[in-house]
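Record type: monomer structure entry
Structure origin: computed from sequence
Chain ID: A
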Amino acid sequence: MDDLWRNILIGLSVAGYVFALFLIPRIILERRHPSATLAWMLGIALLPLAGVPLYFLIGVRRIRRHIRAKIAAASPAPVPPECSIPPEGLPTVAASDCGRALVAAGAPLPTAGNRVTFVSGGDEAYDAVISLVSSARDHVHAQFFILEVDVVGKRFIQALAAKAREGVRVRLLLDAVGSWRALRGIVRPLREAGGEVAAFLPAFPFHRRWSAHLRNHRKLLIADGGKAFTGGMNIGKRYMGPRTTKAQWRDRAVVIEGPALPDLQALFLDDWAFATEEASPAGELFPPPRRFPAGDPPPCVLQVAAAGPDRQSRPIYEGVFAAFSAARRRIWIETPYFVPDDGIGAAMRNAALRGVDVRLIVPGTSDIRIVRLAGRSYFDEMMASGVKIYLYQPTNLHAKVLVVDDAVGVLGSPNVDMRSFFLNFELGLFLYDRPQVEALAEGFREDLSRSETVDPERFARRPRSLRLLEDTCRIFSPLF
């Protein structure tokens, strides 16, 4: 028996080294960050029995879309010429540079004439979501990373089920990992009412398309192709509710109407087709975009940007980097998870050294400790360059907001971390008009007033054991 197990172990080891022989060139050709490439190569070469399975589980960073652009039969209505803005037509250098980078990386052109209404958490967000569902007459399209199994999640499903019973086409797309509990139970009433529910990228290898770590982090709700809710909020009582409570996380979202809706609808349909292979869903998917006269709120120019491991370029990353590089007055950042790559980190430090007001608000207490520790490892070098860092105190901060000068505002699902920029499927809105950018800046100021300043000298005196833990977490961050 001992000989049998010894032979099995030898066979597995040989197989592991054979796999390693083929995997290492593949990893080199993926052109990851050098530290990540070296870590994977060493792990696979030295411990192939563990390294090879781990690579296939969490190391693969690209997937193929077998049905990309599969919605030709339901293509968007053309945007009116006066609503489509070339990047060079944007009002400032920062906006123009940002828009040009986005378009070059594959994002659609900016569109003018959109109406944007900003939404905070609590009852305001809950009312916006339920109202949008209730207004639908033809279809509701929803996709979220997390649907919580709580009172808010159940009421959301009940609202969708009620519309399905009225004959409205309801399609709900949930991330298979983020919403695994909801997919096992609370979505049943929606299916029984005639709605459709799909899971994005199951985590188990026996599915034809699967991934344990490439997650769909987008948050999007569309009613009748004419009005949409998007931002950083998932569905659950942590993010919103019939009543605002102190325990709810600080978050931001937006309700959009106007010429940008076809871009959002096309993005949902692309994800839906990937998850279900339904290339042309029924319904009036692309109605003519509604136009808004000058008024309050004033129409604005915005650009929809999607990123993910199925795309050759990284539009959101390139747009953010271009905006940071062009900044002359301020870069204000709110993010729950701060683990920048070398490029974004260098752009922030360089801007601060040039005299730009660079401020960063992160949670005082994060829900993911390993990410919090990795992020804190960057604080010393950031503050040494002049970046001001603040810890939000009242509750967990989940808002994802960027403000660059008076020129660019960014709101959506991406965090300022390597997972959002390189691994997740993300959705960001880039806003280019001063009133909307200032509205985001005003929310930033409000959160700043509830935050504690990180003192560089005091922070530098933290225990060496804590520094070691932070730097250890930082080492592993490029792998994921």
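Annotation 1: Residues 66-74 have pLDDT under 50 and may be disordered.
Annotation 2: The first strand starts at residue 111 and ends at 120.
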